[in-house]
Design brief:
alpha/beta, pyruvate kinase activity, pyruvate kinase, M1 Pyruvate Kinase, Domain 3, kinase activity, 3 helices, metal-binding, three-stranded parallel beta sheet, glycolysis, elongated
Length: 162
């Protein structure tokens, strides 16, 4: 009986997996490929370029060694800012609320929120949108004060308390 080449035995459905700290070693990638992995996703929001290059090489080597084609999908992040310290530690923004995002060193409140790295005033545009909390909160940019490094916003979609 003629053996069917391994490539023809692969499922038609593509399996995409994001590789992270627990799944990016050569041995683990080999296991994933043998289990059906078709595309390895690298999230460039995390880790260094050197680390991504190492994982990229692990995927390529596993694919070559196992003689199973594996695609690599690179998720390129957009600009991301992190919020600074705030008091109270948690507050809620509701539609219609106004808030200022600033690159200045401030303790955040429901009226003003410090963000880093500096530059939110350079990356914003009037009537543009800014997303907070992984997109759960949407702000509309009303005004930009480049001298103060402030971006005045109105909450379009917020999170209600409770």
């Amino acid at each position: 009986m003629t053996q069917v080449p391994r490539i023809l035995q692969r499922p038609r459905t593509k399996i995409v997996a994001t590789l992270g700290p627990r799944s990016n070693s050569y041995d683990t990638i080999c296991e994933l490929v043998l289990a059906g992995l078709s595309v390895a996703r690298l999230n460039l929001s995390h880790n260094t370029l050197d680390e991504h290059e190492r994982v990229f090489r692990n995927v390529r080597k596993a694919s070559e060694d196992l003689e199973i084609p594996v695609g690599i999908m690179v998720d390129i992040p957009g600009p991301k800012y992190r919020t600074g310290p705030q008091s109270p530690g948690e507050f809620y923004l509701e539609p219609g609320d106004r808030i200022v995002l600033t690159s200045r060193d401030v303790i955040g409140s429901p009226e003003i929120l410090g963000v880093y790295p500096p530059g939110v005033h350079k990356d914003s545009a009037i009537n543009g949108n800014i997303l907070l909390d992984d997109g759960a909160i949407e702000l509309n940019v009303l005004d930009i004060d480049r001298e103060l490094m402030d971006v005045s916003c109105e909450v379009v979609t917020g999170q209600q308390n409770g």
